[in-house]
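Please predict the structure of the following assembly.
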Amino acid sequence: MAEIILFYFLAAVTVLTAVGVVMNENPLMSALYLVLSMLGIAGLFFLLQAPFIGAVQIMVYAGAVMVLFVLVMMLIDINKDEEKFSGGNISALFKGLTVGVFAGLLTSIILRTPMSTKILVAQQATEVVDIARLLFTKYVLAFELLGIMLLVIPVGIVALTRIRGGTHER
Amino acid sequence: MGSDVFEITVNVVKMLLIFLLMVQLVPILVWVERRGSAFIQNRFGPNRVGPLGLTQLLADAVKFLFKEEFVPPSSHALLYYAAPVLALVPGAIAFGGIPLSMPIEIQPFDMFGSHWGPYTFKFQSYDLNIGILFILAISSLGAYALLLAGWGSNNKYSLFGALRASAQMVSYELAMGLSLVGLLMLYQTLNFSQMIELQKGPLHFYFFGRELVVPFLPNWGIFYQPLGFLLFATAAFAETNRLPFDLPEAEGELVAGYHTEYGGLKMLMFYIGEYGHMMVASAVMTTFYFGGYELPFHLSDSLTTAVRGAFTSYNMGNVMAAMALFLVFLLKVLFFLWVFIWVRWTLPRFRYDQLMDLGWKTMLPWALANVLITAFLILVGGGGVL
Amino acid sequence: MILPVLVLALIVATFGTLLVYGASLVGPKKKKTAAKYMPYECGLPGQENKKTNVSIRFYLTAILFIMFDIEILFLYPWAVVYREFVDKGQGAFLFWELFVFIGLFVFGLMWEIKAKALEWD
C-alpha cells in the first residue's frame, strides 16, 4: 500500500515537473524543473529495487548533465534569448510535430511490450553484483564499445570550440 | 520504515536526531575554527562571551536571527531563497546513509500493555545497499545550491564564484570517485557496514598464496590504499571548497563568492551546508580508511562486552554499547574535521589554473594508475582484506 | 527503501524554509535606500549588467566531466566483482577488459591535454 502511494507520488512529481519544463518561459527554470524530473525518475528506480540504476540516474543525469545545462543557461543572455526560445508559429508547428511523433512511438512501444517478461528480466539484475557479472562477461563488447563512444565526446567538443570565428580559434 | 508504531517512531526520531547532530556540530565547529585559528596565528580569538568564548555561538545565532531581511532587487527571488535551503539538503541526506555505530538488537519487551519486538535498529537513517554510490550521487547535487545562489542574486561576483565553484566541484569529483575504486576491489562491496566488518582485527592479507599478518597494525583500509587515501582527502578538500581550494570565495578577487549578497541566517545556512559536506567527507574517510566505528584490533568487542556487563537489562546494555562505539566514530570524525580546520590556517590558496591542473592533470592520472596497480597486484598476488 | 530518504529530504527542506521565513519575520524592517539596494561592488559605483561574458572553459570542463564521470561509474560494478573473478581464475580476462577501457580513458585524457583543452589561461 505504502509502495503504491509512493509510486503515485513519485510519478506525479516526475510528470508535473516535466510539464513545468515545457511550460516555463525561462530556460533556466526549465532546466531546474528537469532536474526535479530526473530525481523523480531516480526515485522510481529505487522503488523498483534497482538502487544502482537509481544512483546512476542521479549521478549522471541530475548531477552531471543538468549541471552542464544550468551552466550553459548562465552563459547565454537569457533576457534576450527568451523570445527566440518560445513563440512563433513555425516553431510551434515543429514542437507539435516532435511531441506527436515521440508520443506515438512511446505509446506503440508500451502497448507492444509484454509486461510480464520485462519484470522477469529486471529481477535477474538488480544488485550491483548481478549487473556487473552480466556486463563484464556477456555484454563485454558493448562495454568496450561504450569506451570508444565516450572517446568521441572530447574530440567533438574540442573541435567545436576551435571553429573558425569562435572564441578559441587556433 | 518499520512494521509497527514503535519501530516507525524510533526510526523517525533517529533520523531527526542524526540531522540535529549534524546541525548542532556546526556552531561547535565554528567555535573550534575561530579559536583554533587564533591559536595557530598566536591571537586570542573570541573569548569574551562565556567561558573560553563558548557561548559566542549562541550570541552569533541570535545576531543572525535578528538581521535585516534583504533581497537584492532584480534578483530572481525564488532562486535566491531556494539556494540556502538547497545547500542544506544534500549534506544532510548523504550523512544519513553512513552507519554511525553498530546495529542495536532489541529483544521482545512489554510496554503500554502490549507486546513489542524483537527489533534491529541500524544506527543510521537508512541503509541503502549501495552505500557509497548513493553518497557520491547525492553529493554531486551539491553544485546546484551554489549555482542558484550565484545566478539568483544577480551580482557578477556571485555568478563568477558560482561558476568557479561548480567547475571545481565537478573536476574533483572525478578524482574522488576514482580514488575509492581501489578499495572497493578489496572490499568487494559498496555497503558501509560490510566494509567496517572487513576492517576488524590486525592487518592480514594473502599474497602469493601465503597469509601475511602484521600484528601491530589494524586491518584498516589506509594500509592497503595509502595513495588512494591521499587522493581522496585532497579531493575532499576541493569538494567542500575549503582552503587551499576555496577559490569560489577568494576574498581578494570575488568578495565572498556565491554568497556575496547573502546575510543573516541565509548565510549561516550556507555555512551549515559547507560544514555538512565536511562531516560527510570525514565520515566517509573514517569508514573507508580507518575502520569506521570499530576500535582497532578486537578492542571494540571487549569494549561492548564491558559496557553490556555494566547494565542488567539486555536491551539497555545493547543501546549503551552502540553509544560507546558511536563515541569512537565521533572522535575519529572530529579528528578529520580538525584536520580540515588545521589545513585551512596552514596552507595558502592555489591559483585557479593551478587548481584545475592539479585536478585534471595530476590527481586524475594518479588515481587511474592507482586503480591499475591495485588490479594488477590482486591479479598476481591475490591479496586483500579477508 | 526510498521512503526514509524522501522523509528526511522533506524534514530538512521544511527546517530550512522555516529558518529563512522565520528570520524574515523576526528581522527588523529598515528603510530601503538606493545605495543599499545596489548590487554589491567594491569601491566603484555599482552597475547593473545582466550580460556577463564567461569563458567557454567552464562549459568545456563540464562536458568533459560528464564523459569521465560515466567512465568512472562503470568501474564501480567492475571493482565489486573483480576479486570474485580472480578467485574463479578468470581474473586475467577482467583485468585486460579494464586495461582496454582505461586505455581508452587515458587516451582521451592525453588527447585533451595535448589539444590544450584543459589549459586555463
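DSSP finds eight helices and no strands in chain A. The helical segments of chain A are 2-23, 27-47, 51-75, 78-85, 89-112, 115-124, 128-135, 140-161.
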